[in-house]
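One-letter codes give the sequence; the fold follows as tokens. Both lines appear below.
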Amino acid sequence: MNGLVKDLVVNKPMLRDFIIISLLLAIAPFFSSDYYITVISSAIIYAIFAISFDLAWGYMGILTLGHSLFLGLGAYTYSIMQIEFGSKTLAIIVAILIPSFIGFLVSQFLFFKKTTPFFIGIVTLALTVIAEQGVLKFSTWTGGQNGLTGFETIPLAGTSFYFFLLVVLVIVFAIVYYLTKSDFGKLIVSIRDNEERVQFLGFKVPHIKTLVFVISASIAGFAGILFANFNGFVSTNLLAFSLATQVIIWVAIGGRGRIVGAIIGALLINILTPIFNTNFPYLWQMLLGLFFILVVLFIPNGIYSLMKKSMQSTTGFVTKVKDEPLKNTNSNDALKMENVSVSFGDLHILKELNLVVKPGEIQCIVGPNGAGKSTLINAITGRNPASKGKVTFNSTRLDNLSPQDIVSNKVARTFQTTSIINDITVAENLQLAAYKGKIPTVLKKTKDVVLPAITLDLLKKVNLAHKLDEVAENLSHGEQQALELCMVMALEPTILLLDEPTAGLTQTERKDIGKMFKELAHEKNVGLVIIEHDMDFVKEIADRVTVLYDGRIAADGSVREITESTLVKEIYLGTAVEGV
């Protein structure tokens, strides 16, 4: 028993806090009038709605300005199905499926094309307006401005309905809590914090966003069903923009990305609103707005973040060596760039570039700033697709593939600016990489970090092996750089592209990593492309050096040939002839 209490207090503060809230809600009816039982019942429904919104915004990073659409659809669909067919079971199923389906359709437009958060907000806002007008247009079915009544509701009322809602809240919380605390939950938080990095770890981000958005929409639709049964009346207020903005305020004040924070925000505001509206009818909305502004400015993570600041979870991750050794099974295949150009309008970055990256070879790319070195890696990995020409590897065209599909073809990269997931631990960053794009389980949170032997060796050499439980954001710049390198090596690539991998590392760490690069290339037969400015480091590790100048290859050869080249010296001194 003591162990369970300690586990709740130390390792699961959110679960502990929800239990406390549930107990307070359970005893509330015994100290409340019928009116306040009704008020709290309504607040519980809104708390379930807030959970659905927090799953989309707080955990997935999808800020919709029209989440009330799904609540309203659930309520209207249930009511209409009840009136037309009279079956509660059928009405509930359809009322969950319709919002889910609409969420799926919206996802196809929002997540599978390059869009901005502003675009997502505007589209979802427009949908609420369309839905509201649709309700008014088809008044024969929806009741129009008068709303919809006359449908059969759950045969519960008062205190009995209150406890029914409390049980539903517990169930919804449990589902979302264990979803977000699982390995899959770690993935969706990572997409929120660094979508590009997750994409370049091989995950199909648009599909994952769609799945989470559909789950969020279905929970919101279910909240709409509860609202219809609770009120016995459905109106366009459930679809209105005002409700969509209110749920943003609830979650922001309570604490987004924390389910309990969303519940606290929804309960607090919806219980206090009738009290303050009675006593301060003209001031409450202004006070609420002021409180919202103060929270955003001074407590951006919400009031729940203050309650759990001192609580740190103990994770206890353990590294294990992967059974299969890292090896390149396509040893004779080279990555080829043929007449590749990359342009942005009239700005031409790469110009008909030809390059061959051979397995088992370390090829260093050098050149002055602005030569197109990072763009070269971007063109190979799909970040900035080639405007002309083609990129092939293992008989596969890469230039028309998405970044995640390129990773699945065993081509991986690091970024010039360190790209890791800041809000999760070192171990969890490595776990994400080790999944290699496979969707992790929703049933548990894995403590084992299974990595190739060479990755574990690097982890020890850069002194991160004893920092598995450390949140990545707390690492030094050099440690974060080393972590990203470990992550891409966990992908077991055949071709590895590294954009200034030694920046921020000490001289000792550089030597150790240089040895690791040599082992990776010469013993594991992996082709390495390394962008590097440190010529001493290049001389130490490179098998071949390519000099890039003005978007073209100016020179290519051994380290000796390049360092003795008059042309290369002229390039670095700024006296190279234009058009090289």
In short: The chain has 24 helices and twelve strands. The CA atoms of residues 382 and 402 lie 6 Å apart. The radius of gyration is 28 Å. The chain has two domains: 2-307, 335-420+489-573.
